[in-house]
Amino acid sequence: MGEPVEIKGQPASGGIASGPLIVLGGHRQKRISSGDPKIELSDLHKALAAAAIDLAALISRVDKDGGEILAFQLAFLEDDTLKSAVEALIMGGSAADEAWRKVVDDETGGYETADDEYFRGRAADIREVRDRVLRYLDGSSEATGAPGAILIGEELGPTLFLETDWSGGGGVLLTAGSSSSHVAMLARARGVPMIVGLGNINLNGHREAIIDGETGIAVLSPSRAERQRFGAKLQELNDRTIREAEFRYRQGMTGDGERIEVMINVASADEVDHIDISTCDGIGLMRTEFLFRDGAPLPDEEQQYQAYRKLLLWAGNKPVTIRTLDAGGDKPIGGITPESERNPFLGKRGIRLTLAQPKIFMSQLRALARAAVHGRLKVMIPMVTVPAEIAETARLVDMAVRELDAEGIANARPPIGIMVEVPAAAIAPELFAEAAFFSIGSNDLTQYVTAAARDEASVAALNDPAHPAVLKLIAAVAEFGRKRSIPVSLCGDMASEPCYLEALLTAGIKSLSVAPSAIARVKAALTAIRIGR
Amino acid sequence: MLASVRITHDVGLHARPSVKLTKLAKSFASAIELAQASEGPWIDAKSIVKVMAMKVKKDTTLYFRARGDDAEQAVTALVSLVEGDFEDTHANG
Known about the structure:
The structure holds two protein chains of two kinds. By secondary structure, chain A is an alpha/beta fold. Chain A contains 17 helices and 16 strands. Chain A has helices at 37-61, 64-77, 80-91, 96-113, 117-138, 158-163, 182-190, 224-245, 301-315, 351-356, 358-371, 388-406, 423-427, 442-450, 468-484, 498-506, 519-526; strands spanning 5-8, 10-13, 16-23, 150-153, 171-174, 194-196, 208-212, 217-220, 261-266, 283-286, 319-323, 376-381, 416-420, 438-440, 488-490, 511-514. In chain A, strand 12, helix 12 and strand 13 form a beta-alpha-beta unit. In chain A, helix 3 (80-91) packs across helix 4 and helix 11 packs across helix 12 (388-406). By secondary structure, chain B is of the alpha+beta class. Helices cover 33% and strands 20% of the residues of chain B. Chain B is built from three helices and four strands. Chain B has a four-stranded antiparallel beta sheet with strand order 1-4-2-3, covered by helices on one side. In chain B, a hairpin with a 7-residue loop joins strand 2 (31-35) and strand 3. The longest helix of chain B is centred in the last third of the chain and has 13 residues, at 71-83. Classes of the chains: A alpha/beta, B alpha+beta. Chain A binds chain B through residues 68-69, 71-72, 75-76, 78-82, 107-108, 110, 114, 116, 118-119, 122, 125, and chain B through 11, 14-16, 18-19, 22-23, 26, 44, 46-50, 52-53, 55.
């Protein structure tokens, strides 16, 4: 155990966690070979068995799709051909880790360069299972998959995040990473503390950490005094969580009885497995980028339909707002988004990109029209700048409906609304009166109005969603919506932060879409606000 | 024991079908081999690494051969798995 070391990064998801450190990915301790083939063989067998137990345990926890991905990895661990080849190298004098790495890479090297995109996609699975075994061999993570651990590494993929059991606590420390990454969104949705942008960390000898996702401070090898300090804060947080929990099942309401809708933001259809529909007023934003994962094959119409349908069935008679693919900017997707843009945030992203890729867009619109028969679906288009983008989307939706009708496939035409996030739309909402609804995307709106990126630490202070200019625009959009009976809601991160709620309500916002982990917190905070009209 | 069957699965012998095939093969004691032509080359049908590396596409004919006490049952079961498009055999699967 080393001396206590305090490190600081950018907060990406709030909460406090403490636990054993598990090193992710490439930065591993160097394994020292025993030099004895018998010991190396035994180490190999132990590592394979331990990794297989991990995977089998995970399979029993995740849903069917996740289970199938993991079953493929498990089959690799149980492949005798692969094992014999590794054993032969070890008997020839190789160290267990070198032999395992060499055989797996040799046998599957063709995947990375395969002309079939599906095989290229599987390369990531194989790397993941290869590294899982290597971690057991070098002992850097004997508790892989153990609930309550702190994962530390350069980056963390969404798949690994979803595979991890967070029910027993735990957190994430990333040396790189961004608070607006998908994995950070998932962490906020699940209430898993996360700090990103920690820079180089010397992990030498550290086995435990305490992390505070609100301040962005973590302590490696914490002393007893530090444990007590964080313990007290954790206790306070827990008390607050318990106090707020009683509001979870109540309707969103201000202290003076004004009903406020509280909906949720979700990034994948599986997320709702953990959420009781009676705690919210529906889904205010489903991000679909997650279906279009970087490096993975594009989801076909059927896969998309199944995901959308699942959410609609879950929501019952409550509305579900699904946003069409919002790739580009901070969410590049290989093969879809342009690669050589100098400034992707001002480039071909959101609706600009999908209208330029009609094949991809049509598969999504068809899937949405099919799903629309299962509930109250609303379709939302991102980055709208001119009214023609709504008209063109409406034309494509009509086309999808006609195609499906002609094919005899059940469908319904969902209403089309827009994200209000480009200042052009927020300044002149009257241009977009044909939209079925407005949803204010305060993250991008703030970043464009203040000309300050929120994942750029040096200007992060300027990126203030409570800047009077941003609030003025929000109030103007809410007022226009009220006059013209166009529903207005707000789905940016500020809706989940109690400190902004009074300003939002004062600006006339009556509908919020928040991170699922913030439902109780937001409802509790609303009761303390009186807007007194 | 030798038999052949045409694969009609949409994506060919990709991850999910390969996992099912090797799992089923491993449930038999016999040595079971798989090829894309009757003259081979033959690979171990119990090895996911070898099966995936064949990169079998849709509409390819697969050949199975087995040697051992349960060779016949093994080949029959594998052929019907491919014929049934790798669907779960149990209604509730």
